[in-house]
């Protein structure tokens, strides 16, 4: 029995995950966005690993391409999260410490 996800199943997972993410992020109050950034970066790190596994184990080139796209988005999210966190922490530094 083949354990690989079919394209149809992979698209359903993508759709449902996207809708769930939008719903959850929409309910977070603005004061909690910054503390949750580190947790989101950790989750994106897990997504990076899952994308690499998907690329390596994908039976079709289309699923490999989907893995590459997910890898790019996860990498963009991790780098962006660190840049936003660095910028936010810079606001708390004293003027003469910069």
TrEMBL record:
Transmembrane segments: 6-26, 38-56, 62-85
Domain of life: Bacteria
InterPro entries: NADP_transhyd_a_C
EC number: 7.1.1.1
Membrane topology, record value: Multi-pass membrane protein
One GO-annotated biological process of the protein: NADPH regeneration
Top EC group: translocase
GO terms for cellular component: plasma membrane
One MF term in the entry's GO annotations: NADP binding
UniProt keyword annotations, A-Z: Cell inner membrane, Cell membrane, Membrane, NAD, NADP, Translocase, Transmembrane, Transmembrane helix
Compartments (UniProt record): Cell inner membrane
The protein's role, per its UniProt record: The transhydrogenation between NADH and NADP is coupled to respiration and ATP hydrolysis and functions as a proton pump across the membrane.
Protein name: proton-translocating NAD(P)(+) transhydrogenase
Organism: Synechococcus lacustris str. Tous
């Amino acid at each position: 029995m083949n354990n690989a996800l079919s394209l149809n199943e992979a698209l359903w997972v993508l759709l449902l995950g996207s809708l769930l993410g939008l719903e959850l992020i929409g309910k977070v109050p603005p004061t909690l966005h910054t503390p949750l950034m580190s947790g989101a970066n950790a989750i994106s790190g897990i997504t990076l690993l899952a994308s690499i596994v998907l690329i390596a184990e994908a039976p079709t080139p289309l699923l490999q391409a989907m893995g590459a796209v997910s890898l790019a988005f996860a990498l963009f999210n991790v780098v962006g999260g660190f840049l936003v966190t660095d910028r936010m922490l810079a606001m708390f530094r004293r003027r003469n410490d910069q």
